[in-house]
Inverse folding.
């Protein structure tokens, strides 16, 4: 396109000026006037020009004026501070004699000049790092000498000239010092260019010749040609934080900024796509937050990649505590999260806690390398220019094998290492912890201290926050091992079968975001693709030998087979990589697409998961997950999604039973979209999002697969017993609330409510809780009917419905029932189960026909046409329903026990309703969140709490779910933890959980963990005589509302605890002299009935307890007046004895059940009987909670005892 009309079309007021900036003659201006004397300058030999894209911007470390001012902003390229600026005359280009007036600006990185001070884009930029000399050349002129170009400027007067020279020299000197340091660090580098994200020639509208364009980090640089790029002398750069990229046509795209539109054209469509992608990536980077990076870079050594020495590394390994460059980060990822956990300083905002940042500041690259890189032979070290293979080899040796590390003297002696670790974590010596940990000390070793069983707990007790942080991130780290290289530790990188496949595929440019829109055929380009030697490569065409790009199969993490016609090409599939990229390929023939899929799958799936290859998967890949027996450590597993079934192979090759996603009890995302939790009846699976892109895809796919997919029965979300959840929810609700409602199922509810209820239930019945206040029984009843009436294929199926209707004509009752039984057996399992559940329900409804007026016949009139989807003129359909209800027991083979159970259940419900008919609501399940061992997202369990559930049963429920077997002397108990008070209370095994839940405030939660002191408490109780205890304790009273009582400090008091009272005495001495019991004349200062006390272990730190063995005691009398006070003992043993006595007195004897198994057997029975009695959800609002407290003030069990 001609340059002239471009300028016209740009039509911006300032376009003339801008265009003149980039006018062709400008390039003449800087033609090398002379090469500098090459031998003369001092340091340019050692440090050849550092080329532009990754400029060194680090000012001197010496505390000086300039250094300081730059220090603050060195990370923010956006705001490079101007050190000096002003008008200067620039010497004329060749062939001209007229000096040109230029606005010249110097910042820590560049000397640039502009047409005017208002301009954003320079005419020329000279990196400070390339300046070798600045000298005066007379006539108020001075010369800036770079490696092979000279720039001459003329100032208005000598003073100005001298000031320019001085400043430039100083900046260049500082840079020189910095460069020398870097050279030694990284063994840099000859004239090869710094890595750019993308570089090459592009046409820029307005220029005759192509420009050499470089995308690097958050900037795009323009050079006149490749040689200039090599030398570092550029035209200008574009800050991408203000950029916006838009494709224009097949080869062109615009980079728009508020100051100018840059219209580029590439040589090919593929090229264009790659440029667009690179620039978009650059914008993302520019917009990312650099606050964390700046803070971490504040430490000198963190400003260069710990591995290769590249400047401004903006990635990190958070467990190794090293700051690394983007290229090294890519290779780190390949090592796996067991070795290094890679995060971005700029983009992964949420991992950067204060502690972690501080850890990086205190620890960082120097400390890490003193250990990891203690013995690196120069021949093996890498530099910023090293290729990716070299990098990989080095990083494997460094971190996976630990080849260069500084061995700890205790290396090889596990016991000693562990002991030393336990000692180190209580100090601030992070280097020691690092050395121990990565020489084999176990982060989960047994400390031998029951109060602090892990090194983490020790660190916490010692207040070593940074140690804790370091340990936390290394919880799952594997220590380096030399033999690992040849072992199968990294399953997917070894012994992969070599698969070969090739052919043409359609391909779009790779993406960093999920595909949200359908891609039209024009967005695909035809590429020759080969899968060979573990690399999937794509070429411009089948004659090319240099690929446009390639994907190593061990980097593939996920493969997705899209439904046909998802995009403009008939069959498409997606490939996701470790580096969070997504490649979309397409083919016109589904059969060939399938072949490609199978070949790629075979090439990247580890043999341990081979069986997944046989599946017709929609999605296949590897993910980290926790589940089953290995909750401490996430493991890698292979997952395949087929329909609504998720197949899982664990890394040890064990195939687990597939998960039926439609039968999940819970499916939720936790931890800020990082963990997907799947709860099934028998197990819980936590899938972790290691990478964003493929994880997101999995989440959506699993959510979709777990929801109803159509309008037939088998496509619904199902209960464990194959009944659609929707049906189950409605039946359950009517059973709870509508059995006695007059005209139930006959009265029509509100049409609009029915419609919306059906809609939400169909969308995700798992999340719907029907509540009495919110949903009218008739609306729910109508919803159920509507569901059956609209059901695709009907409950009896189109195939079999005529046979059912026909059977009604049989006159012999016995023959008819026999026929029904046969027909029932012929139904698909889900239909059969649903029919049984429904008829069972209708059977119950007619039991109450005295109240609800719905006898069998009436129900049949309603349900016949509904279930058979007929108009109801013919009673045959009704006849079937009537027969099914009347012969319910025979047809469905219901035994006496089942019948009895149901009767009991109904009776219980009716009694419950009568008892609470005074207006309290009830509905929905009382679901409570309970943690295992500690409060963390991954340890969350959601438990339905029946009214009868005891702490012991709850404990077993949690342990069962995690398949933890309670061993002798493992005193697993349920604790109520009060975070605000920093105190906790082990529940007595026989305590009912539900009333406790109702009293829990928002700062409290339940956790199941081992009760470490139980054994000692039992020993103490067994050994002592009598059941009371007395002695000194330190006492502190909470200031009450009126400000009365002791307000500060702990005071010695004498206490006596007997079977009914706790008494406090001030007169210690006189008491001690008297042996047995106290004289009645001695009145206690205070006394409390023991049953009104709740005793918690722990006293909040804010109160400065004199010892760490304290109690927090809550007292509440019959009038609901409350008091709270604190006790501290002198020794741990003393605390244990007091606490044991409290427990014993309060619970009337045993602290621990003598026979465990009894409780286990009893639980399911109780569960089954009361399983359907629903209560207010715990997560309801506050007033709901309060109401329900009233309902449970009386033990609901008493209502049921007469059943
Ligand atoms: Zn690096």
């Amino acid at each position: 396109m001609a340059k002239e009309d471009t300028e016209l079309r740009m039509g911006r007021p300032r376009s003339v000026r801008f265009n003149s900036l980039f006018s062709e003659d400008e390039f003449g201006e800087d033609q090398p006037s002379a090469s500098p004397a090459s031998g003369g300058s001092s340091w340019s030999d050692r440090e050849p020009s550092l080329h532009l894209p990754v400029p060194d911007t680090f000012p001197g470390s010496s505390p000086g004026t300039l250094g300081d001012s730059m220090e603050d902003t060195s990370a923010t390229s956006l705001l490079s501070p101007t050190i000096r600026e002003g008008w200067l005359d620039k010497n004329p280009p060749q062939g001209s004699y007229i000096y040109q007036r230029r606005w010249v600006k110097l910042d820590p990185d560049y000397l640039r000049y502009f047409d005017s001070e208002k301009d954003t884009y320079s005419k020329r930029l000279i990196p400070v790092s390339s300046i070798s000399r600045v000298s005066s050349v007379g006539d108020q002129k001075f010369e800036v000498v770079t490696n092979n170009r000279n720039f001459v400027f003329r100032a208005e007067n000598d003073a100005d000239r001298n000031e320019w020279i001085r400043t430039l020299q100083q900046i260049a000197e500082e840079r020189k010092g910095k460069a020398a340091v870097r050279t030694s660090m990284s063994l840099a580098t000859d004239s090869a260019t710094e890595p750019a994200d993308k570089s090459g020639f592009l046409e820029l509208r307005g220029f005759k010749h192509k420009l050499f364009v470089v995308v690097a980090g958050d900037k795009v640089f323009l050079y006149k040609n490749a040689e200039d790029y090599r030398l570092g002398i550029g035209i200008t750069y574009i800050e991408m934080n203000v950029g916006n990229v838009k494709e224009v046509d097949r080869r062109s795209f615009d980079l728009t900024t508020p100051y100018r539109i840059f219209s580029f054209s590439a040589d090919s469509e593929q090229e264009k796509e790659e440029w667009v992608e690179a620039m978009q990536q650059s914008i993302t980077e520019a917009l990312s937050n650099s606050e964390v990076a700046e803070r971490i870079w504040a430490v000198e050594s963190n400003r260069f990649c710990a591995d290769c020495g590249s400047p401004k590394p903006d990635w990190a390994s958070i467990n190794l505590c090293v700051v690394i460059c983007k290229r090294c980060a890519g290779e780190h990822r390949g090592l796996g999260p067991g070795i290094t956990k890679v995060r971005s300083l700029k983009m992964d905002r949420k991992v950067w806690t204060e502690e972690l940042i501080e850890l990086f500041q205190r620890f960082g690259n120097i400390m890490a390398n003193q250990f990891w890189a203690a013995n690196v032979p120069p021949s093996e070290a890498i530099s910023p220019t090293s290729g990716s293979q070299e990098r990989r080899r080095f990083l494997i040796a460094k971190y996976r094998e630990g080849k260069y590390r500084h061995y700890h003297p205790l290396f090889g002696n596990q016991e000693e290492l562990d002991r030393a670790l336990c000692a180190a974590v209580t100090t601030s010596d992070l280097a020691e912890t690092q050395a121990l940990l990565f020489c084999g000390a176990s982060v989960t070793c047994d400390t031998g201290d029951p109060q602090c069983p892990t090194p983490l707990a020790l660190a916490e007790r010692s207040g070593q926050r940074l140690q804790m942080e370091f340990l936390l991130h290394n919880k799952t780290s594997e220590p380096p091992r030399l033999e690992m290289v040849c072992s199968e530790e990294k399953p997917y990188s070894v012994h992969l079968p070599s698969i070969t496949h090739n052919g043409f595929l359609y391909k779009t440019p790779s993406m960093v975001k999920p595909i949200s829109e359908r891609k039209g055929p024009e967005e695909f380009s035809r590429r020759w693709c080969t899968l060979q030697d573990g690399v999937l490569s794509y070429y411009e065409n089948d004659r090319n030998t240099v690929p446009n790009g390639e994907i190593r199969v061990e980097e593939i993490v996920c493969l997705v087979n899209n439904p046909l016609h998802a995009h403009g090409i008939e069959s498409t599939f997606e490939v996701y990589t470790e580096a969070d990229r997504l490649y979309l390929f397409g083919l016109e023939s589904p059969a060939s697409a399938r072949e490609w899929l199978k070949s790629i799958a075979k090439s990247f799936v580890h043999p341990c998961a081979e069986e997944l290859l046989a599946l017709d998967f929609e999605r296949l890949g590897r993910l980290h997950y926790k589940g089953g027996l290995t909750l401490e450590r996430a493991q890698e597993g292979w997952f395949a999604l087929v329909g609504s079934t998720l197949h899982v192979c664990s890394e040890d090759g064990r195939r687990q039973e597939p998960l039926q996603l439609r039968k999940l009890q819970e499916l939720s995302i936790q931890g800020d979209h990082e963990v997907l939790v799947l709860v099934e009846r028998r197990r819980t699976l936590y899938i972790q999002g290691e990478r964003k892109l493929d994880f997101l895809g999995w989440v959506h796919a699993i959510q979709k697969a777990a929801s109803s997919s159509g309008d037939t029965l088998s496509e619904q979300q199902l209960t464990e017993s194959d009944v659609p959840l929707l049906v189950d929810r409605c039946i359950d609700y009517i059973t709870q609330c509508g059995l006695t409602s007059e005209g139930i199922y006959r009265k029509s509810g509100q049409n609009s409510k029915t419609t919306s209820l059906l809609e939400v239930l169909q969308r995700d019945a798992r999340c719907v809780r029907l509540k009495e206040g919110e949903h009218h029984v008739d609306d729910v009843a109508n919803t159920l009917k509507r569901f059956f009436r609209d059901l695709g294929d009907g409950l009896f199926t189109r195939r079999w419905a005529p046979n059912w209707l026909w059977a009604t004509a049989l006159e012999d009752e016995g023959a008819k029932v026999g026929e029904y039984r046969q027909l029932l057996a012929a139904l698909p399992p889900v239909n059969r189960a649903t029919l049984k559940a429904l008829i069972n329900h209708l059977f119950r409804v007619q039991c109450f026909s005295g109240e609800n007026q719905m006898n069998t016949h009436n129900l049949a009139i309603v349900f016949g046409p509904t279930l058979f989807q007929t108009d109801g003129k013919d009673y045959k359909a009704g006849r079937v329903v009537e027969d099914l209800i009347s012969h319910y027991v025979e047809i469905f083979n219901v035994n006496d026990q089942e019948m009895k159970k149901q009767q009991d259940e109904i009776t219980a419900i009716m009694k419950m309703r009568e008892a609470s008919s005074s207006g309290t609501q009830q509905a929905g399940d009382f679901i409570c969140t309970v943690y295992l061992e500690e409060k963390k997202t991954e340890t969350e369990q959601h438990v339905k709490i029946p009214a009868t559930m005891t702490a012991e049963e709850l404990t077993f429920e949690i342990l069962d779910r995690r398949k933890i077997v309670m061993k002798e002397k493992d005193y697993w108990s349920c604790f109520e933890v009060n975070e605000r008070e920093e105190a906790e209370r082990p529940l007595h095994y026989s305590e009912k959980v539900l009333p406790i839940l109702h009293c829990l405030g928002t700062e409290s939660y339940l956790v199941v963990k081992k009760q470490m002191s139980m054994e000692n408490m039992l020993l103490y109780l067994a050994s002592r005589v009598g059941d009371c205890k007395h002695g000194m304790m330190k006492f502190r009273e909470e200031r009450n509302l009126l400000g009365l009582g002791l307000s500060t400090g702990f005071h010695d008091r004498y206490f006596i605890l007997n079977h009914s009272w706790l008494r406090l005495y001030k007169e210690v001495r006189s008491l001690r002299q008297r042996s047995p019991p106290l004289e009645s004349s001695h009145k206690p200062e205070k006394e409390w009935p023991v049953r009104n006390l709740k005793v918690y272990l722990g006293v909040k730190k804010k109160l400065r307890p004199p010892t760490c063995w304290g109690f927090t005691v809550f007292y509440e009398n019959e009038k609901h007046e409350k008091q709270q006070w604190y006790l501290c003992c002198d020794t741990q043993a003393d605390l244990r004895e007091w606490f044991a006595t409290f427990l014993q007195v309060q619970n009337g004897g045993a602290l621990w059940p003598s026979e465990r198994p009894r409780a286990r057997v009893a639980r399911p029975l109780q569960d089954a009987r009361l399983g359907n009695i629903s209560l207010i959800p715990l997560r309801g609002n506050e007033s709901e909670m309060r109401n329900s407290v009233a309902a449970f003030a009386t033990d609901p069990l008493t209502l049921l005892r007469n059943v």
Notes: The chain has a mean pLDDT of 78. The two ends are 92 Å apart (CA to CA).
